[in-house]
Amino acid sequence: MATAKIAPSMLSSDFANLASEAERMVRLGADWLHMDIMCRHFVPNLTIGAPVIQSLRKHTKAYLDCHLMVTNPSDYVEPFGKAGASGFTFHIEVARDNWQELIQSIRSKGMRPGVSLRPGTPVEDVFPLVEAENPVELVLVMTVEPGFGGQKFMPEMMDKVRTLRKKYPSLDIEVDGGLGPSTIDVAASAGANCIVAGSSIFGAADPGEVISVLRKSVVESQNKN
Ligand code: DX5
Ligand code: ZN
């Protein structure tokens, strides 16, 4: 079974204190740290690149779940591999012609390949990547338009999660955008097991409590099925 992974989105952390924020999240029960890499061409925002991952890696052993919202993911594979990224999730919308080579090179650099899709992209578009001989190991279903934290969860994306879970019982299915205590149950019961949450964790008075609420919902949904 795909186990529950709670991944605080470091986009909502204090970037000036990234190392201590990472340490705090791990101490509070985070399984993964979600790192949002954005270039201004794929999304209207700009965040961090490989040098920051490399610096952070010196301070933590945590799994760095990198979500590449960039137009040329293949340019980032080598630097991210060297920097110590753990997971490398690219967007299907910019990899329609080269996803096979991309998956291959991600794996050859010691990272775990994943694919993400924007809200407007049909879920069928990622089936070939999951079914390939050299497949992705994670599908990230965006539940907001990528670009910014703090947006409203799109429940209509749960059809994609249900479809994926039905087809691929042990796949890591990640949801990202607007997740928190008020939206987790619908995502968990649809079959998501990797939960990204930025503002709901970092904005909470007790972030550790939010992490445990998210985990509990995933575990309980899995136990029902
Ligand atoms: C949005 C990013 C998300 C974002 C989620 O493009 O991919 O990871 O940080 O933030 P919240 O949980 O606040 O919606
Ligand atoms: Zn993300």
Short description:
The protein is an alpha/beta fold and 225 residues long. It has one domain: Alpha-Beta Barrel (TIM Barrel).
Topology, element by element:
Layout: E1 5-8, H1 18-27, E2 32-38, H2 50-57, E3 63-69, H3 74-83, E4 87-91, H4 99-108, E5 112-117, H5 127-131, E6 138-142, H6 158-167, E7 172-176, H7 184-190, E8 194-197, H8 199-202, H9 207-224
Parallel strand pairs: 1-8, 2-3, 3-4, 4-5, 5-6, 6-7, 7-8
Helix pairs in contact: 2-3, 7-9
Bound molecules: D-xylitol-5-phosphate and zinc ion (ZN).
Pfam family, one: Ribul_P_3_epim
GO molecular function: D-ribulose-phosphate 3-epimerase activity; metal ion binding
Binding site for substrate: 9, 67, 147-150, 178, 198-199
Walk me through the structure.
- The protein is an alpha/beta fold and 225 residues long.
- It has one domain (5-224): TIM Barrel, CATH 3.20.20.
- Helix content is 36%, strand content 19%.
- It has an 8-stranded parallel beta sheet.
- Strand 6, helix 6 and strand 7 (172-176) form a beta-alpha-beta unit.
- It is globular.
- The model has no long low-confidence stretch (mean pLDDT 98).
- It binds D-xylitol-5-phosphate (DX5) and zinc ion.
- Belongs to the ribulose-phosphate 3-epimerase family.
